[in-house]
Amino acid sequence: MLTTRAKNEIAGAGLALVAIAIVLGSWRSAHREAVQLKAALETQNAVLAAAGKQETARDAALKTSLEQIEDLKKRVQTPQQVISQLPQVLPLPKPISLVPVAPAAHGGGPETGPAPAGEAILPAVDLKPLFDFGAACKECQATVATLQQDKLSDAAKLGAMTKERDAAVAAAKGGKIWTRIKRAAKWFAIGAGFGAAALCGSGHCK
Question: Distance between CA atoms of 23 and 19, rounded to whole angstroms?
């Protein structure tokens, strides 16, 4: 038969071991969650970084293309230059030709100013491609306007998601993990208290 003293010592030691086991279990669980959270954040950050690099590269390519187009617009001024460079921006089935016009036909001369450069002859087969090009430009303008608005919305969504992620990280660090540790510490204190009480009851506190 176990004496009361032995029973108290066993009970106190058992409670202390339970408290220690709770602390160890909480630490292991917190460590496992921290590792999982770190892996998830690394994956998410890698995706965000890759998306950012791709967007930066696209923006740089677009900027270069726009600069080249603006430079071409500045360099091409005369009708002859327009007809010469038109295939770069608008390929047509048949090239537009520039036909010189006699000064007398337009009243040209010293009194009326220089003669015109000529008249552009537009082949009939070019009419439909020109119309389609103009219609496509209207579509592009509408699409660009929508995409610009979508980009602003996506930036706002990304900012909100980033804030939510940071808040989740802060909550995980300051909430689940530390709450579990505090709870385990509370049980450890309770177990230690019972153990001390048992030892004192058995006469070891004297």
Answer: 6
The reported pLDDT for the residue numbered 125 is: 93
Any idea of the CA torsion for 40, 46, 51, 54, to the nearest 10 degrees?
Answer: -170
Q: What is the pLDDT of residue 114?
A: 55
- CA distance readout (Å), 178 to 22, 41, 169, 187: 14, 20, 13, 14
Q: How many CA atoms lie within 13 A of 197 on its CB side?
A: 9
Enumerate residue ranges in the chain where pLDDT < 70. 1-2, 6-9, 11-12, 15-16, 18-19, 23, 102-117, 165, 167-206
Neighbours of 190 (CB within 10 A): 15
**What tokens appear for 201 in the block?**
């009851």
Instruction: Output b/e per residue, 147-167; b: 16+ Cβ within 10 A.
Output: eeeeeeeeeeeeeeeeeeeee
Say what the pLDDT of residue 128 is: 93
Q: Which of 72, 126, 129 is nearest to 95 (CA)?
A: 126
CA angle, 118 then 123 then 129, to 5°: 120
Coil, helix or strand at residue 76 = coil
| Residues forming a β-bridge with 121 | 97
Q: What is the pLDDT at residue 124?
A: 92
What's the token pair of residue 63?
């900027």
Q: What share of the chain is helix, strand, coil (3-state, %, to 5)?
A: 80, 5, 15
Predicted confidence at residue 150, as pLDDT, reads 83
